[in-house]
Structures are given as C-alpha cells and as structure tokens.
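Hey, I'm writing a tutorial for new members on how sequence and structure tokens pair up, and I'd like a real worked example in the thread rather than a made-up one. If someone can provide the structure for the chain below, I'll link this post from the tutorial.
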Amino acid sequence: MNMEHIKVLLIEDNPGDARLIQEMLAEEKNISFDLEWKDNLSEGLKRLAEGGIDVVLLDLTLPDSRGFNTFTRVQEKAHQVPIIVLTGLDDETLAIRAVRQGAQDYLVKGKVDSYHLVHAILYAIARRRVGERQFIIQELKEYDGKEGKPAYIAFKGKVYDVSDSRLWKNGIHANIHFAGNDLTENILKAPHSEEVLIKFHIIGELTRKESFRRKLLLKMVELHPHPILVHFSIAYSIAVSLLALLYIFTGNVYFERSSYYLIILGFLAAPFSALSGLLSWKITYEGRMTRIFARKIIFSVVLLFVTTVCFVWRIQNPNILITTTYLSYIYLTMVVSLVPIVTILGYDGGKIVYS
C-alpha cells in the first residue's frame, strides 16, 4: 500500500458527521485519502468483502446494528483491516471495550480535529503493517521524552506512546513517573484505573531478558517489603515519643522504661525499613532522583541518626530522663522529633504511591 494514498471506509449513519470527517481528511495536504461512506452495517460489510480497504472508521450505533456487536461483526469480516471506533460521550465505555478486543483506537465525535483523525489513521495502519515492535528495557529507556525524543512507557507488557499527552511534559508525569520505564507497578497502585491508557497508542511489546539477580530482586520487590517494614519504624517512633511524654507528665517510671524498649525496636527496624525503601526505589523507579525521593533519603538518614543516638545515649545513661538536667531536655527533644520525621516520611511515601 502506498502510504500517500489511503482507502478509508466510513460506516456512519449521520450525514453531518460523515461530511465533517470528509472535510477533515481533505485538509491533509501530504496524504491523499479516498473516503467511501456507507450509512449502515450491511452495506459496509459488503464493501469490506470486496477488499482494498486500508482502514475502517466505524460508528457503533447504526440503523441495522447497535452496540458492541457492530464492532465484532466488522472484525469478523475483515480481521486484517485496522478499525477505529467513532463514538459519542455516552458510548465511550463501549469504545474502550472494543479497543481491548482489537480495535486500533477510538475517537470521540465532536472532540476530534483533522490532526488527531489523521494521526489515528496513520498509527492504526502502521501497526497493522509492521506489527508491534519488541522492546527490551534498555531500548525503552532511550524513549524518555527528553530533548525532543518520543516518550514511551510500558504497562503489563505493552509499550504506550505518551508523547502528545499534556500530562507527560518532557517525559515526566506528576514529578515522580518517568517515560522510558515499565510503570506497571506504579499504575496498578494509582487511584485511577488502567483505562486511562486506552487513550494512548500501543506501539510495541516489552520483552525482558533479565538476569537471575534482577529476577530475584523483582520478586523481592513484588512482596512489598518496604510498605511492610516502614510501618514498624513509624509506629515505634511515635510510641517512643508518646511514652516519654507520659513519663514527664506522670512520673511513672514504667512509661520511661517502655519508651526505652521501643527505642531498641525502632533502632533495629529503621535500617531494614531504609534499605527496603532503597531497594524499591532502585528497582521500581530505576534510581531516578527527584525532589520527593531526595527528601525521603534525607529524612531516612535523619531517622537512622536520631534513633541511633537516642538508643546509644539511653544505654550509656539509663537515667537520662529521670535526672532532670539540660541533657534530659535535649534527649526528650530528640525523642519527640521522631514524630515529625516519620510523619514526613509516611506522607511522602503515600504521595509516591497514590499520585
């Protein structure tokens, strides 16, 4: 097929919509579009049977067929021909379903212009002609959206082109997601559904040739060690401060002793929490440094430092809180400071996961 001359079959029962599509295709000066219009499914299927069609623009609501069945009948008649579904806002769910079942794309009537219509047609044909490209993770990293390069992301083995999205400026989304990476785990954790990706073109598949070491690390990350371990550090740090303050107000030595025991547990838990977070960052986010990750690293170091100092100080001076001196207030201040430290770490962790 000569890419400069494309045969388009439009199956659409609304003359106004058909005329608008014809006008939009006529605006393209570099490609010649030969548009054939059929206003019902029966006539459209007959034309498909004759062959020679490069792409189908299909309305799902026709006089002789309605809903998802319209798509399946066209797909059965010409499964090698790319199909772009035309839909209204009320039928967008059906269009998404059609894309999941093999349609190349969908366009919402009234929201598409000449550029996006031509863009969708060319993408649909290109994918049918050459099939989906195979990417390994090293190749995917080249498409990071920087310096004018395309921005690709991977999800569940599919590679999506997000270059034209206003949400992916310079290959970055929400300051924490970066193009050129497999974002499967991030998207699955996000509050929105994966259907947001339906709007983007699939341009290939991600294949992995991972080393045994990386496979082992990925399996470890899949067990979510950091979300599990970080809760210990948060809980212990808050309880240490609370019990120390209770001792100050009540004078009950058991509160101070309980605070000490929890310092020990916090001292033991903090390094594992920090290391598991570092592992997740390296594997899931490819070690990309952003402001939020830098802050988490800094406050993790601060948490380790404060916990260690409190632990060692309390061992060397068991009566540090009991004997009221200026050192007691310094120690108490350090203990209480654990609360804002772990609060910031917990907040940033939640922001990373749910943004």
